[in-house]
User: What shape does this take?
Amino acid sequence: MSTVLVTGGSGFVGGHVILQLLAAGHEVRTTVRNLAKEDAVRDTLASAGATDLGKLTFFAADLEKDAGWAEAVAGCDYVQHVASPFPIAQPKDENELIRPAVDGTLRVLRAARDAGVKRVVQTSSFAAVGYGHGHRDTPYTEEDWTDVDGPAVQPYMKSKTLAERAAWDFIAREGNGMELAVVNPVGIFGPALNNDLSTSIELVKRMLEGALPGAPRLYLGAVDVRDVAGLQVKAMTDPAAAGQRFLAVADGALSMFEMSEILRRNLGDKAAKAKFRELPDWLVKLVAIFSPLAREAVPRLGIKGEASNEKARRVLGWQFRSNDEAIAASGESLFALEIVR
Assistant: This one.
């Protein structure tokens, strides 16, 4: 078994990656910005069924600071670089997202290289693959990159694109033989671990609470967080993953209205409030005259942005849960944690 550092262990994806690494018998380290979070993270993982938490060690490290990274990564065989900011609302200054994403990625890679790490697996995003291109009839693949100057490309999409490009450039120029593999998930659903919700799970919460009287005709791909974590672990040790990107996507893109139908179909009466109108495009465009949020949505109206999972299945033998399973599991976890009543 190996020693693995997981950055951002208090997050949604990071928590599930830790669960799977511990279950496989690895020694796991994780970073948090403040060690005061350690007890809460341990409690969360224990509640989720973590085994052998004695193999989990915490280090204080911040993506925007040098302190702590050398100590966190010393003696590690692999690094799972999961941490990256993902806000509910877009910042006024895009550099609030871009700077920590890019600089933080380079900070982790330098520390890993200097410590003699074999391979880093970076959690990137479909945001680095399929935006800024307008309408497209064919699915996106790992060969595609987001056009950061294209229409409707928001700061988060830029941050993930620029951070991943910076990682590949670093490996090519300064990696000294260290390997990189990248996982690019679409919208990540599945069971929440605590009340610190990801943006995708927050959307499900709002649906279940009846907080969306209407929604624009926007589409997003879906994948279960447990399957993303599984792909991260496969990409860590499989020789075929070195130097490769892998899209993590399940059954295809969904509209928000279709997501609400999945919740009602699978959760029954508990999802009775997850019902709303799909807003016509003309109304969204009218509202966009006054609303910056609606204005951001207009260039994406009706664009599905389908992605292919063929490479992950072929190269790594990856298997995945359906959209129904992933989204229903999100809703069930919100009731189980009593976040939604």
In short: The chain has a mean pLDDT of 92. The first helix runs from residue 12 to 23. The two ends are 41 Å apart (CA to CA).
